[in-house]
Design goal:
Elements: E1 4-8, H1 13-24, E2 30-33, H2 38-48, E3 55-58, E4 61-64, H3 66-74, H4 78-82
Parallel strand pairs: 1-2
Antiparallel strand pairs: 1-3, 3-4
Length: 86
């Protein structure tokens, strides 16, 4: 199973949607709330190259945000990246 990391804020609807998709697939994820600590948000921005949330990493690879995650799923590629395909 792949390691999934997601940077979020509590009220972000895109964060909520991305986490819901991962939960529907039965994928555990490590969530980092960037809303209260500017240093953590700065570290996320440095790592992802983007300031917006969510920012999603799978096995250390930057996937992008919610739209990117859903696009991968729509193309049938997300399950393979997550290690869900046999």
């Amino acid at each position: 199973m792949s390691k999934v990391e997601i940077y979020t804020t509590p009220t972000c609807p895109y964060c909520i949607a991305a986490k819901a998709l991962l939960r529907r697939k039965g994928i555990a994820y490590e969530e980092t709330d960037v809303s209260r600590d500017p240093q953590i948000r700065a570290a996320m921005t440095q790592r992802a190259g983007r300031r917006s949330v969510p920012q999603i990493f799978i096995d250390g690879r930057h996937i992008g945000g919610c739209d990117d995650l859903h696009a991968l799923d729509g193309k049938g590629k997300l399950d393979g990246i997550l290690g869900l395909t046999a």
